Amino acid sequence: MILSAGVGTGHNSAAAAVQQACSARADVAEVQVLDVLQVSSALYRDVLGKGYFVLVEGMPWLVEWGYDASDPPFRRRGPIDPWTRINALPVIRAIKRFRPTAIVCTHFLPAQLLATLILRGVVDAKTAVVTTDYDFQGLWLTNAFHKFFVAREEGRVELTAFGLPPDRVAATGIPIAAESNTAPERDASVPPMLLISAGAKGGGYAEAVVRQTLHMRSAFTATVVCGHDEELRRRIEQLVAPAGNCYRVLGFTTEMPQLLRRADLFVGKPGGLTASECMAAGLPMVLVNPIPGQEVRNGDYLMEQGAAVRCNSAATIGWKIDEVLREPGRLQRMQVAAQRTGSPDAAADVLSGLLDGPSRPLVVSRAAQKTILAESERRVVATDLTGPSSLVRLVEEVAGNTVALLQAEELIALRKRYATGAGGLILRRDHALVSLRWEQRRLLRAMLRGEDVLPVRVEGPSTPFRTLPD
Q1: In this prediction, what percent of the chain has a pLDDT beyond 70?
Q2: Which of 58, 329, 393, 439 is least buried, going by the fewest C-beta atoms within 10 A?
Q3: Strand ranges (DSSP E) for 131-278?
Q4: Is a pLDDT exceeding 50 seen at residue 466?
Q5: Residue 203 has pLDDT above 70, yes or no
Q6: At residue 92, what are phi and psi to the nearest 5 degrees?
Q7: Mean per-residue pLDDT, 20-45
Q8: What's the CA gap between 82 and 147, in Å, rounded?
Q9: Could you tell me which of 79, 78, 115, 83 has the C-alpha nearest to residue 3?
Q10: Three-state DSSP state, 150
């Protein structure tokens, strides 16, 4: 089962890419894709979906503030809020009907819901969280999952520095459709082709981009994609009519993968899926009008890789593109950088990492979450801590997978009840379980997964237990 949320098009595009990759695996018998917003109430859907883009257009500073405020890992702890819980009921019913053995989440809303269901014992499926932007954002991090997939190696390093075990985090790239996974041989003898995109919903900034390209000195052709905005399409067609065949203006199209492979330079917003598709096609980008937060950070990464330039003023877009086209070899170097940055096999890698990965979930206790949040706000790497507040891992002896991330102090009660002579623990589903605190009971249920006994060993800093009594 693949769970997404239709806030923009990127999350659903990633879900479709994973669905497509399922067809290449003989061990996947059936796939169901569900946009969780489509089965929620109209009010909830409008607030989260349409409301977000209203803020993007009218109050981008508030979007940026919200992104930064929700960025610290585990700032949001505890159960999902009542409104979200009510709107999640149709999703829970759909999961129970389908009875999946594996679930992929391409949006943080279903990821948060699944964590709650895992801890309550409602779901016994392998669960993956798949981020859809190049920079990791703390809102995605949940307290129960099987595998966490990020877009690049820096995100993996960041999560392991927080304390998450390396066996549960992988850098695969952002899942994209298979049509986007090969870069063509571009013909240097013809003028470069610009692909100017207004996004699926359209956008007035695309008109400003096209207007500025009319002043360019370099030879070029351009394809302008206006999305569903028919009024924008008509205005641009009138604008470029004097230029003859230099411009091709389209509305919404399903041929974006083919256009990406034919183009030489993309001009538009650095959404996670758009950027990932461009990189897989070896298509460098001129970034305009990024959404504060994730798209700005996507752009920073692409520029760092040498695969993009950013234009912050509509008045200089034509000049900026001209600078790329006129400098000998620059466009070709950017195309090589884009190809190097791409991850065309991300969807298949996500499936392999999940289906061939651990059978038990990783559970992060609330105390461990507090440590991770507190140390990240102090700009301290949590894995450097020692003493009672340090982080320790419980690793199952047989499979070698980490099943829990705890605060060292939490081991006191577990050791008293389940310690072995060898220094490990043998977790049991016995009558003594009821005497443990609620949090400890919940963690044990999630780790045992219906079994009666689970031998684990304790791993962590070399000195976490010196201040703890046995």
Answers
A1: 93
A2: 329
A3: 144-145, 147-150, 169-171, 193-197, 221-225, 247-250, 265-268
A4: no
A5: no
A6: -60, -40
A7: 91
A8: 27
A9: 115
A10: strand
Q: How far is CA 94 from CA 35, 88, 123, 343, in A?
A: 11, 10, 12, 32
237-266: string of b/e by CB count within 10 Å (b at 16+)?
Answer: eebbeeeeeebebbbeeeebbebbbbbbbb
Tell the residue number behind the tokens 């829990």, with chain if given. 404
Residue 464: per-residue pLDDT: 39
The Cα 275–Cα 97 span in angstroms is 36
Q: How far apart are CA 305 and CA 178, in angstroms?
A: 23
What amino acid is encoded at 71 in this protein? Answer: D
Two tokens, residue 305 = 């890789």
Q: With 50 as the cut, is the pLDDT of residue 227 above it?
A: yes
The beta-strand segments (E) located in 57-155 are: 102-105, 126-130, 144-145, 147-150
Maximal CA-CA distance, the chain: 85
Q: H or E element: which one contains 370?
A: helix 366-377
Residues near 203 by beta carbon (within 8 Å), at least 6 away in sequence? 227, 229, 232, 269, 289
**Residue-by-residue DSSP string for 16-29:** HHHHHHHTT-TT--
Q: What is the DSSP string of 164-187?
A: --GGGEEE------GGGS------
Buried b (16+ CB within 10 A) or exposed e, 415-443: bebbeeeeebbebbeeeeeeeeeeebebb
What is the C-alpha separation between 38 and 105, in angstroms, rounded? 15
Note the pLDDT tens digit of each residue in 267-286.
999 999 999 999 999 999 99
- Sequence ranges of the domains in the chain: 2-173+346-356, 183-341, 363-459
DSSP codes of every residue in 19-68: HHHHTT-TT-----EEETTTTS-HHHHIIIIIHHHHHHHH-HHHHHHHHH
Tokens of 447: 């780790």
Range 183-341 has CATH code 2.20.25.90 = no
Beta bridge partners of 34: 3
Of 13 and 431, the structure prediction assigns the larger pLDDT to 13
Choose the most confident range, by mean pLDDT, from 36-40, 170-174, 175-179, 196-200.
Answer: 170-174
- For the chain, the first-to-last Cα distance in angstroms comes to 44
Q: What tokens appear for 352 in the block? A: 């392999």
Joined tokens for residue 117? 């269901």
pLDDT digits (tens, 9 = 90+) for 298-336: 999 999 999 999 998 888 999 999 999 999 999 999 999
Question: Would the pLDDT of 91 be above 70?
Answer: yes
